[in-house]
Design a protein that fits this description.
Low-confidence stretches: 1-29
CATH class of the largest domain: Mainly Alpha
Number of strands: 6
CATH superfamily of the largest domain: Hypothetical protein af1432
CATH architecture of the largest domain: Orthogonal Bundle
Largest sheet: 6 strands, antiparallel
CATH topology of the largest domain: Hypothetical protein af1432
Helix content: 40-55%
Order of helices and strands: HHEEHEHEHEEHHHHHHHHHH
Number of domains: 2
């Protein structure tokens, strides 16, 4: 990594192999907690230290709090706060410089109250500031080499580079979180807009999303896949924004020309969302949510296993919500009646696995009586 490799000495290259691993984690961010923990543990291990911690500055209280702390008293440290005017960590924040203290008890800035509170004995500390946009946002600290030796300039160069990497990791994770929140706002706006197109008065997209997640849990789909599926389910009809209300809300059957227009909505939804980060993976499920198990669906006429499982689940949930919702042209079916219809069409219109998962998930959630068990 530019700016990190240049500051790490060439000697003992194996000792710093973990830098590449950390950089990979920074480029492909995990959740902030896991990312910080993995970086800090690798730092502690590489420097042969007894403990490490990462403190962040609370701008409102001007206190440092332990975002991460390992070692024998890590759990206790997470409950403590330090005024930025106190301790070696406070000195690093105020001065924006790294520091080595190999005899902590003799240092005037050493905050011995933490040792008293935890029972841990700090002999030596090496720390470096975390800097984002020229502002010090926290401190990385490593304590006590296990072999009893002092921290040296080689360790200083390493921790300075690693503090830069950790700061970048934090910035990336937070930027990603901010981006996710922005996209979630966009998604909510799109869903609200799509809901206004419904003759049933809205709520269909949210119902389908809830039903799909119930079934996905029953199939034990990974969390990441469930998140994609949730986005796809809540946005599955977004392509209908291009269809006139006069067609969507007709009481009588659409003409063939109108059907052709309606059948384009999965493709329109796919084209609309495929270029948006975070939810682009969901666009493929939206594209195929009107495919049928027997190959008679649209837009591509996929058959059986060729249809993504997420799209198969959405198809079942979509149909179920339509059947159990009153429309101008027909009354709502009861849940048992709707499930009977799903069962009747399992293997033709619907994937049997998806129907079973939906059925079982509903029974476990007490949304349906066991009488309807497949």
């Amino acid at each position: 990594m530019p700016g990190v490799e240049s500051e790490v000495p060439a000697a003992e290259p194996a000792k710093y192999d973990f830098l590449e691993e950390i950089w990979n984690r920074v480029r492909y961010p995990e959740k902030e907690d896991r990312l910080i923990a993995s970086i800090m543990r690798m730092i502690s291990d590489s420097l042969g230290a007894e403990a490490s911690s990462l403190l962040l500055l609370d701008e409102n209280t001007q206190e440092l709090y332990f975002r991460f702390a390992d070692g024998p008293v890590g759990r206790q440290l997470k409950k403590l706060h330090i005024n930025r005017q106190s301790g070696i960590a406070g000195w690093i924040v105020r001065n924006g410089k790294p520091l080595i203290v190999n005899d902590a008890a003799k240092n005037k800035d050493f905050y011995e109250s933490i040792d008293h509170a935890t029972g841990f004995k700090t002999r030596a500390i090496i720390g470096a500031p975390l800097i984002i946009d020229e502002n010090v946002v926290g401190v990385m600290e490593v304590l006590n080499k296990k072999d009893g030796t002092d921290f040296d300039q080689r360790d200083m160069k390493a921790i300075r580079g690693l503090a830069c990497t950790a700061a970048l990791a934090l910035e990336n994770a937070r930027s990603k979180a901010e981006l996710l929140n922005a996209y979630k706002g966009t998604i909510k706006a799109l869903v609200s807009l799509a809901d206004t197109k419904e003759s049933s008065g809205g709520g269909h997209s949210r119902n389908v999303s809830g039903y799909v997640i119930t079934a996905a849990k029953e199939l034990q789909l990974p969390k990441h896949e469930r998140q994609i599926l949730e986005y796809a389910a809540i946005l599955h009809d977004i392509g209908k924004l291009s269809i006139p209300d006069s067609i969507l809300n007709k009481v009588e059957a659409p003409t063939e020309e109108e059907w052709q227009m309606i059948r384009k909505h999965p493709l329109i939804g796919y084209e609309l969302l495929k270029g948006i980060p975070v939810i682009n993976e969901a666009s493929r499920l939206i594209l195929y949510h009107h495919e049928r198990h027997d190959g008679r669906g649209y837009p591509e006429g996929l058959v059986g296993e060729a249809i993504p499982m997420g799209a198969r689940l959405i198809a079942v949930a979509d149909a179920f919500d339509h059947m159990t919702t009153a429309h101008p042209y027909r009354e709502a079916l009861s849940r048992p009646q709707a499930f009977t219809e799903l069962l009747r069409k399992a293997g033709t219109q619907f994937c049997p696995t998806a129907v079973r998962a939906f059925n079982s998930g509903f029974i476990k959630a007490k949304l349906l009586k066991p009488d309807n068990q497949i």
